[in-house]
Amino acid sequence: MVNAIVTSGDIAAELIREITGSTNVEPWIDIYLEGPFPAGVDFRAFDAARSRALEAMGWAQSNEAFERLVQRERVFDADMLLLVFDRDPVDMLQLVHFYHYYCEHRSNASLRIAIVDVPMMKGAEQAIADAITRSREFTKSEVTYLKHAWEAVTSSTNFSRQPTSRLERSIGEAVTRRLEQFPPPGVLPRSDRQILAALQRGPLQLVQLFERSQMIPEAERFVTDVMFRYYLERMLKAQPPLLKLAGATQLPALGSKDFWDTTVSLP
Predict the structure, then answer these.
(1) Measuring CA to CA, which residue among 170, 118, 182, 116 is closest to residue 145?
(2) Total-model pTM
(3) Cis geometry, peptide bond prior to residue 240 (ω within 30 degrees of 0)
(4) Per-residue pLDDT reduced to its tens digit, 97-115
(5) For the chain, domain boundaries
(6) Coil vs helix vs strand at 120
(7) Alpha carbon distance 189, 140 (integer Å)
(8) Phi, psi at residue 15, to the nearest 5°?
(9) What is d(CA 184, CA 203) in angstroms, rounded to the nearest whole number?
(10) Percent of the chain with pLDDT over 70
(11) Backbone CA torsion sign across 200, 205, 206, 211
(12) How far apart are the first and last CA of the chain?
């Protein structure tokens, strides 16, 4: 019998609590698309590096982030765990991270995986319930694939291992996408290149740019709104600047309507 459930974020966790009646549902929360992925460190050291990076990017206070990340360790005591993730890159990278550290702590534990084929948000309750009903153990091939994915993402090396299942393909796409955010010196991250490509035909409001920059040629949404603003700020402050604001001297706060109405263009 499953005695704990791990999922991607707070919204998904709340939905799963409502569906299953379980109170032991742990969101893995961190956005591994940005920031360090240090190799050869224990779980606490990994979380410390992540929390410092989150603060540097303006996404959270370091001490608060660290406290929240460390809370996740309580699931390491569970003997039987159900992992519930959807296929987007955030979830797949969380799966890679979780699998490595959980197996390091509990190599003899029982893990089951439930993959939801739609984003886990309000309205997806039936899809989540169906995925949980179909949950299964990892195949030997998937276990090997997860180990290679961890090695690739922590060493920033190309990941060319061929997938043999749909889950492996989703993991491989997420790892490759993250690695494209950390290219060699002199090459812009893929997110920046896609923003610039979307602006080639002229200025856009940020609400338009957010959508269009992820369609070149994004199969799954990679950039969240928080990340999007972070990338814009970085590009505006580059020397020389990669973007130009229209009618504003600085980027509005994300929570304001002015943010999405702001127009940007190439310099």
Answers:
(1) 170
(2) 0.86
(3) yes
(4) 999 988 877 666 688 999 9
(5) 4-179, 190-265
(6) coil
(7) 34
(8) -60, -45
(9) 29
(10) 95
(11) negative
(12) 59
